[in-house]
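CORE FACILITY INTAKE
Project code: CF-77B
Contact: R.S. (postdoc)
Sample description: multi-component assembly, two entities in total
Requested service: structural model of the whole complex
Turnaround: standard
Below are the sequence entries exactly as provided by the requester. Do not edit them.
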Amino acid sequence: MSPTAAFAVLTCVAIVVLFLGLGAVLREVRLLRALLSRDPDGFTAAQPELSLGGSFAGPPADPADPGLRMVVAADTGCGLCVTVVRRLADRGAAATVLTHEPAGAWAGRAGQLPVVTDREAWRAIAHLSPPVLMLVDAAGAVHKLLLPVRAEQADRVAVDWGAAAVAEPEREPDAADR
Amino acid sequence: MSRSRLNVIAPSGATVEVDLPDDAAVSSVAAGVRFVGGSFGTGFQIGPRGYHRFAATVVAPATERDRLVVHGREVVVAEADDGQSSWATLLGTYHELMTVYAGPAPRRDRVLALFSSLRIADHVAGMVVRPASATLLDTMTEQVMVVVKDRGSLCVPGPRQARGLIPRHAGAPTRHGEVWKAPYPGAGGSARAGRHMFILGCAGGAAEVHLTPSPAATERDQLAWLDGINVSWRQG
């Protein structure tokens, strides 16, 4: 190979390497820009400020008990509500079903779970999509509120809130569970 | 018949108190907000969780085109099967924030830039959405929609727009304010309540009321319900 041809080949290789380097730098800049535009305060979810009132107020049987109980607001017309209630009933979770319908509508669906018909309490959460999982204290105030998108989420929440015993998970939790 | 009160947090952060004279069930609450700045304007709708899915299956059958993460929340982009419209929705903890585009779905970076420019606070009673200060955008209009089963729907405009809604002449007195009747297009001089929209002016706010014919309620029941509505705004 003549020195001129070797020089031309080397030059071409150098140009290609420089272009690849430039591409990598531009990619880094783009990633950095995306990182800067990501604002941690862009979305915040406030704690619920709700009270379910009378039907759910009352001192716990045991004074050592913090008095927090799990309430599932559900409607028989919504498929996920029925599935969630049935799952909680099957697991023997300590949860109460809140509904606006006559309690008879839940006969055979809620298992041993107590069903409370309270239209006034329902009105507090009627604008949200049922099922609504709530952790309610002895005064009827809601401490935590979660709208599940999958039936398994209700199992996990019941365990987290101390309403059900720990069971073997069916799958690893993913981003949607957090 | 017991009275019922609904407190809704509007997109601006102010609270709307809606007093309803009976215990008819509130079946849906939604809100709308529009931001403007210079020659740019953009509108959003806020609905309960499942709003996007409802729109994509019932309002305009659509196909999901893209999913991305903004502010740590999922944004879903769907395009109507007829290609006439598309919408992007941020799925919040309690509510969903949706914007609608004309035509096919926009590119991912446009959707990302739009939702990134917002500051969103999701409350159980409503979602507060404000543009980031660096965008120089401002809230131009906002409204809250309340749908009541067997009665009708209320559209409560923000206090700034309410001034333009109220006619200059006196209306008929109601329990909490005054009411004016405006015929729908094509009402043809009919005196029936169902052929009219009602503008309700109360001391703390105004609302457009649309009565929905229902076999479970007579026109008289609905007019009695209209008579007892009170709407008032409270700054948040």
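Facility notes:
- DSSP finds four helices and 17 strands in chain B.
- Residues 4-25+149-234 of chain B form one domain.
Invoice: internal transfer
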